[in-house]
Amino acid sequence: MFRSGSQGKYDLLSPLTEYSAEFGIDATQVKQHGHPLLIWDGEQTLHTQNALLVGESACVVDPFTAEGIRPSMFSGVKAARAIDQALGGNAQALEDYTRVINEEWGGDMRWARRLAQAFYKAPKLAYRVGVKRPASTEKMVKLFCGDLSYADVAQRAIRRLSMGLISGT
Ligand SMILES: Cc1cc2nc3c(=O)[nH]c(=O)nc-3n(C[C@H](O)[C@H](O)[C@H](O)COP(=O)(O)OP(=O)(O)OC[C@H]3O[C@@H](n4cnc5c(N)ncnc54)[C@H](O)[C@@H]3O)c2cc1C
Asked: Is 55's C-beta closer than 6 angstroms to any atom of ligand 1?
């Protein structure tokens, strides 16, 4: 559930049970596990003395898609570089790690969060004007491959969603 402030307010098990039933699976007979996702929620300090927060513990998960593996690997690579530099005598390296993640990943996540806010406010409309368009699928693939950034596409997508909300299409 990506709507902010919605923790615990929605019944997620009923739709899961209905959806599973469409594939002949009785979800009530399966042991269910809940797992929170630490989505990006703004800039944070990710370093302290001799330690870095890396991967999901650094809240790098994309608030629009819940993609967490790629950003976790990204932060892992950046952390490894920072640690190497710190061991090499660069006293600034761990602090730089925080700055790099906030700038390089956080910069794009700001757009992802804006898009998520617009998208999940009206998911049925968003499905009609966004998900069903083949061009949107292509753009998402390019985003996942790192060939496009949210900064390239989010403004237009948000405008399209807003127009749909206004016109009621
Ligand atoms: C159900 C579900 C589906 C998901 N689907 C996707 C998806 O399709 N695509 C996507 O990109 N992301 C997805 N994610 C998110 C993604 O899995 C995570 O964001 C990503 O794996 C985080 O990587 P990480 O290395 O930070 O942490 P993790 O992958 O959680 O790795 C942390 C590791 O540390 C170990 N560990 C924990 N505590 C200790 C300890 N004290 N000592 C030693 N080891 C310890 C854990 O056992 C674990 O192996 C999904 C998440 C969930 C819960």
From this structure: yes
What is the share, in percent, of the chain residues with pLDDT greater than 90? 57
Q: Does ligand 1 lie within 6 Å of residue 56's CB atom?
A: yes
65 lines ligand 1 (CB under 6 A): no
Residue 58 CA to residue 39 CA, distance in Å, equals 9
Question: Atom 10 in ligand 1: which residue has the minimum CA distance?
Answer: 67
Residues 38-88: pLDDT tens digits?
A: 999 999 999 999 999 999 999 999 999 999 999 999 999 999 999 999 999
Beta bridge partners of 51: 48
Structure tokens at 46: 């990710």
CA-to-CA dists, residue 71 to 24, 66, 67, 133, 159, angstroms: 34, 10, 8, 26, 26
Indicate if ligand 1 lies below 6 Å from the C-beta of 61. Answer: yes
